[in-house]
Design brief:
Blueprint: H1 10-16, E1 27-31, H2 35-47, E2 51-55, H3 58-67, E3 72-76, E4 78-79, E5 82-83, H4 84-94, E6 99-104, H5 109-117, E7 122-125, H6 130-157, H7 171-184, E8 190-193, H8 200-210, E9 218-222, H9 228-236, E10 238-240, E11 243-245, H10 247-251, E12 256-260, H11 270-279, E13 281-282, E14 291-292, E15 296-301, H12 305-310, H13 316-322, E16 325-328, H14 337-353, E17 360-361, H15 363-371, H16 377-391, E18 396-397, H17 404-407, H18 421-436, H19 439-446, H20 450-465
Parallel strand pairs: 1-2, 1-3, 3-6, 6-7, 8-15, 8-16, 9-12, 12-15, 17-18
Antiparallel strand pairs: 4-5, 10-11, 13-14
Helix pairs in contact: 3-4, 7-8, 11-13, 14-16, 18-19, 19-20
């Protein structure tokens, strides 16, 4: 005969003012060697919309927590021949974000204190009612909500952004944003393509915010590396002698993970990434147990993906998995109507940040901005305006506050135009660099050494430092993304 008093609970809930369906859905594991308790707990939890997994033994329970992440674990104090308290550290090692609630018919102050010391969140003596179970789930859900809220606030404080609402007058950009909003609520993988500086990462965060996962974690991993082992450990985690490293996939459980510059993932790791996207399964480095995840993936790329497949840098099946929902962001030169809009936004933002009484740009300065080709896109424009605001001591930004390269730049050059050869070379290098996303990629296309490109970029930057440097990347990480 079971010693847990669980029934429909409607009368109890009404009497105590605790209503059903007031808790956001949780992933719950019920570990108890009594079948009646597993069944009745499962029924009552599922009525409230929670997803429930059960385990009848310690080994079955440990197998479950090693395979997937849980929000709440009901753990019997006496799980067969095993002591539930001794299992708590092992549970939290695998599921560090889980809330463990010990249940037992042998309640005592000593065991309650011991359970809390070992990491349990709460202690529930048998027999218990549906109301008590619901109170526990509500407590766990609120704790989870507050944790996510703190993480979201920390993230928001670090990226106050004048482009947070995606100001645009471009029909092409508006269609891209409309598509992003339309697909945000799905669980499908989204691929965002565009040149460096077009806002791919910002749009990925917006899709997360517009989705039903907004309260859950958002994470990011840069796939551009030659160290496949380090990226695998960063993504999937690792089992080491010094302890468990959960990895970014586990951190983003229920949330969103951004795979930045996914086309540059080392070839040896691409089959594992394909499995992650297609089956939502993976293994930690050094551990052969398969784990499940419930994560939404967003990928970005500045490369021509079809060309990457032709060059065997990207597996065609991975491109198929990534391209279910593709959003292309246009470069700033293709939406000139946005240059004035963004420039004014940036002026207001940086003037406010630096306590300057600047209200706008002189017409001549705006003319120079609108005719510039902006190979670095909105990121370059933002940097130009930030520098100009710091140099300006008037109430308007003038030509004298802009970098020298804007004074000699035109929107485009053609063979035979009466411009210095050096200007044509600089524009071509930056254009190829914008398309490939990395100095190494640009060097391969241009058939010159990567160090030559780095020196050229640094020289151009040094020339404009005196009258306005924008950027002077000396390595790949400075221009990727």
């Amino acid at each position: 005969m079971s010693d847990v008093a669980i029934g429909s609970g409607a009368g109890d809930a009404a009497a105590k003012g605790v209503s059903a369906h007031t808790t956001s859905p949780l992933r719950v594991l019920v570990a108890d060697d009594e079948r009646a308790i597993r069944v009745t707990l499962s029924v009552n939890l599922e009525v409230d919309g929670h997803t429930v997994t059960t385990a009848a033994s310690a080994q079955a329970m440990l197998d479950e927590v090693s395979r997937r992440a849980f929000d709440l674990i009901f753990l019997d104090l006496r799980l067969g021949a095993d002591n539930g308290l001794e299992l708590i550290p092992r549970i939290l090692k695998e599921n560090p974000r889980a809330s463990v609630v010990v249940i037992t018919a042998y309640a005592s102050v000593e065991t309650a204190v011991d359970a809390i010391k070992r990491g349990a969140m709460d202690y529930l003596p048998k027999p218990f009612t549906p109301v008590e179970v619901r109170l526990v789930t509500q407590k766990v859900a609120e704790r989870r909500r507050l944790q996510w809220q703190v993480e979201a606030l920390r993230d928001a404080m670090g990226r106050l952004d004048p482009e947070a609402d995606f100001p645009t007058a471009s029909a092409v950009m508006q269609r891209a944003l409309a598509l992003a909003r339309q697909v945000a609520g799905s669980n499908a993988t989204v691929l965002i393509c565009g040149e460096p500086g077009t806002g791919k990462g910002r749009l990925a965060r917006a899709i997360h915010a517009w989705s039903g996962r907004a309260a859950a974690p958002f994470g990011q991993v840069n796939c551009e590396t030659t160290d496949a082992d380090a990226l695998e450990s960063d993504l999937f985690g690792a089992s080491q002698d010094s302890g468990e490293h959960p990895g970014r996939v586990a951190f983003c459980e229920s949330g969103t993970l951004l795979l930045d510059e996914v086309a540059l993932t080392p070839p040896s790791l691409q089959p594992k990434l394909l499995r992650l996207l297609a089956e939502r399964e993976y293994e930690r480095a050094g551990d052969f147990r398969s784990r499940k995840c419930e994560v939404r993936f967003i990928a970005t790329s500045a490369l021509d993906l079809d060309e990457a497949v032709k060059r065997k840098r990207l597996r065609p099946e991975l491109l198929l998995a990534l391209g279910v929902l593709r959003i292309d962001l246009p470069p700033l030169r293709d939406r000139p109507e946005d240059i004035k809009l963004l420039a004014q936004r940036y002026v207001e933002h940086w003037a406010r940040e630096n306590h300057r009484p600047i209200v706008g740009l002189h017409a001549d300065a705006m003319h120079l901005l609108t005719r510039h080709s902006w190979p670095g896109n909105a990121r370059e424009l933002r940097n130009v305006i930030e520098r100009a605001v710091l140099l300006c001591d008037a109430n308007q930004l003038g030509v004298e506050h802009l970098p020298h390269n804007l004074l000699r730049d035109t929107r485009s050059f053609s063979i035979g135009d009466l411009v210095p050869l050096e200007a044509v070379e600089s524009m071509h290098i930056r254009s190829v660099l914008a398309s490939t996303g990395t100095i190494k990629g640009a060097a391969a296309v241009l058939r010159i050494n990567a160090s030559t490109i780095a020196r050229r970029l640094k020289r151009d930057a040094d020339e404009t430092v005196d009258g306005g440097a924008i950027q002077g990347p000396e390595d790949e990480s400075a221009v990727a993304g």
